[in-house]
Amino acid sequence: MFNGPTMKKVARVTLAVVFGLTLYALAQSKEASAAPAAGSAAHDDTPNAPSAAAAAATVKATGTKVGTINIEQAIFLSNQGQRDFAELSKKFEPKQSELKGKADEIDSLKKQLNAQGDKLNDEAREKLVKDIETKQKSFDRATQDAQEDFQAQQGEIGNKILTVMAPLIVKYASDNGYGMILDTSQQWPRGPVIWYGPAVDITQPVIQAFNVQSGVAAPPAGSAAPKPAAKPAAKAPASAPPKQ
Fold it and tell me: E strands of the chain, at which residues?
């Protein structure tokens, strides 16, 4: 219910926006740090920024190399990301079970309509069709609500991780002579990168640096990395005609 390509697209868009806003915040912090002390009071009225972001704001892009990073992988495959997203998936397991029960009930009613529709009188058949339609609408609303809730919480986790990870990306890029880092979470033409080699990709080094800083232990061997959530499969029309 909550695993597959649709949520992956949502996560990519969300994380790309968060990444851009985080780096923008770093740039703003850099400008603020260069301002006269008289501006400090006004700066104190703004939302608090992580101290790590303020530290990274002093880093200047003096390198000339162009590098790449898959932001989605960096977040989802970090130890903290795997732990937090696995916990989120577990949290939603009861809701998944509830929705599966509703889907099974609707499927059973549809099979009943197909098997017995020609034996039912008009009133009984109409009642069964309306019952299916009512349950289907309720199921669709519950599924959409659950997905939106899941996506919102997934975005919060990604935002929290990326806020801390962004300064590490900036520092690693600066320390290793990079003047530009491009995100490869989306393949071309949706993303900006047509082709790149592993030599310029800094995803793994950033993950390793983040794992050290976070202090979160690696997940147990053999455990599957969490996957973004998905849209439920398309459902047959509630008013499917009975078999002849």
Answer: 65-69, 178-183
